[in-house]
Amino acid sequence: MCGIFGIVTKQETNLGPTLIEAGKMLSYRGYDSVGCATINAAGEIDLRKDAGKVDAVAEQYNFAEMSGQRGILQLRWATFGAPSKVNSQPHLDSDGDLVGAHNGNVVNNAELRKQFMAEGMTVRSENDGESCIHAVERYVNKGFGMVDAIRKAYEDLKGDYAFVIGRQDEDVLYAIKKGSGLVAGIIEDGTVVSSDLPSLLPLTRQILRIEDGEIAILRADGIELRSVADGSVIEREVELVKETMEAAQKGNYPHFMLKEIHEQPVVAGELLNLLDNSEEVDAIVARIKAADNIYLAGCGTSYHACLLASVYFSRLAGRATIPVLATQFIAQYGPAVGPGDVGMFVSQSGETKDVLNAIESAEAKGMGVLGLVNVVGSTLMRVSEHHIPLGCGYEISVPATKTFTNQMIAFLYLALRMGGHDTDILHDLPELMRKTIAASDPQAAELADSLVGVQDFYQLGYGMTYPMALEGALKLKEITYLHCEGMLSTEFKHGPLSAVEEGYPVVYITGREDVDLIVSGINEATCRGGWAIVVGPEDARLRANGHEFMILPETPTPEIEALLTVIPLQLLSYHLSLALGYDPDFPRNLSKTLTVD
Ligand code: M6R
């Protein structure tokens, strides 16, 4: 997700340790490169950066000795351009008198880079953070002052981002917000700005929140806010923030799980930008197309993404794939696989031992290894021929939520591309996710209260919602400690239907294509006294037959509708966990990453 931090002090001082600490505080967001720039009182810029972790890069380049009156730190999570020294941030403008760094995605980066080069600017990297600096340079070169140059640049830079920029011959930093997080603060001898509040709390409790469309001018003696729209001064009081560090890290959500559920639309949008601009997508599609057999392997939630992916590849690209639990891969397919086959291995952490074992056995048979992984620098990322980063930042709560939705989105994108379909159909997805969260959160909370006392139940889906039923049940078991089984709805009558009695809850998850089949399943249960909870589209047939409803917004395709069904199920598990008095973030007996057999 990247992170930026800036500081302005009254006198030149040793800023290195503060910048390193800020880097450590922001590192939870996930990153692959680190950089610092300081500007001393004489206006000299000292820029040090490289790919790697904060401790290692800081030691190698001796960040600790860096001094200045202004400082900028950036942690980069690669989106535009590979993780490398040149793509690391901060960046300089052409003649080296502007320096800055960004967080977020400039979606018209490719087009802007061409324009900057045509205008004679020196473009050194592929990174979109550099475009923020050149976008300002373009107008400074035309004689605009910094505030007006930034206002003009804001019009040129499309996407969601925030950036910090400083000019050699001034003594201020400018911080601009458009979509990505940005918070400023007053410290004893100056001012600071950062991508998030927790990284400022060790330095100050006097906070100034910056809104989209605002420029904060950080001076040693205070912060001035200006409107991008007309350049006017915005008056806002500095707040005295009282929350604890943990509350700040949770962004005022009571739990990481809820925060991460609410982050899903944002990280989905970031992933789509990343995929639109990734060369890895073509490489992976070509590798899959050429393979004899394609295995999709993961554990737990990541395996459920593989199950849905298999349906996506079949429906959208006419290609059969073999989803398999990573632990079962060796026993079931190990003896049969060969060099013509490819495995797409899916893991949030990239360190799950069961997945790494499967990869080892696949490699031993000469199979191709592809990765879909969240944690940058993880083993899965390193051993994959090609990989797609999920771009979710850290997922702290043990139950996987935002990484699951991004796994499904990445697979849907690949299937669309393999089938020669337009991926623009996905661009409304973040908004649909937002609507689903807003509608289902209160419903899930109410339903959870009425489920207290229930000891076991079923979640049933069909076709594309079958993996969602498995995922909904896993999530529920994981954080409520109740028994819940996810099943194919049509299998219910082959045995488990016998459990149904008066008031027995069954959750039915359906897409619009399967309503008739699901309605028939609902009736099997309700005629025996079952309590039917329905997750699906608005449909009179469902309304007429079910008891409780969590309704999805209208969606452009059944594939998108299917992946949205998991959001109400995540929220139901979350609220039931709370209603039962548990901490959903850290369920007993489990850990986030399972590095053992
Ligand atoms: O890091 P991974 O995706 O490889 O983890 C796999 C499973 O352990 C994980 O998905 C687990 O099932 C989740 N905690 C479920 O919410």
In which range does the helix fraction lie?
A: 25-40%
| Overall residue-averaged pLDDT value | 94
Q: What does the radius of gyration come to?
A: 25 Å
Query: What is the assigned CATH homologous superfamily of the largest domain?
Result: Aminohydrolase, N-terminal nucleophile (Ntn) domain
Regions with pLDDT < 50 over 5+ consecutive residues? none
**How much of the polypeptide forms β-strand, as a percent range?**
15-25%
Shape: globular
Give the names of the bound compounds: 5-amino-5-deoxy-1-O-phosphono-D-mannitol
Terminal-residue CA separation: 31 Å
Put simply, the count of helices is 20
- As for the CATH topology of the largest domain, it is Glutamine Phosphoribosylpyrophosphate, subunit 1, domain 1
Strand order of the largest sheet: 3-2-4-1-10-9-11-15
Per CATH, the class of the largest domain reads Alpha Beta
3D structure, described in words:
By secondary structure, the protein is of the alpha/beta class. Helix content is 38%, strand content 24%. The chain contains 20 helices and 25 strands. An eight-stranded antiparallel β-sheet has the order 3-2-4-1-10-9-11-15, with helices on one face. A seven-stranded antiparallel β-sheet has the order 5-6-7-8-12-13-14. The chain has a five-stranded parallel β-sheet with strand order 17-16-18-19-20, sandwiched between helices. The mean pLDDT is 94. Bound molecules: 5-amino-5-deoxy-1-O-phosphono-D-mannitol. The site of 5-amino-5-deoxy-1-O-phosphono-D-mannitol has 17 residues, from helix 10 and helix 16. 5-amino-5-deoxy-1-O-phosphono-D-mannitol binds at residues 299-302, 347-349, 352, 355, 398-400, 474-475, 478, 593-594.
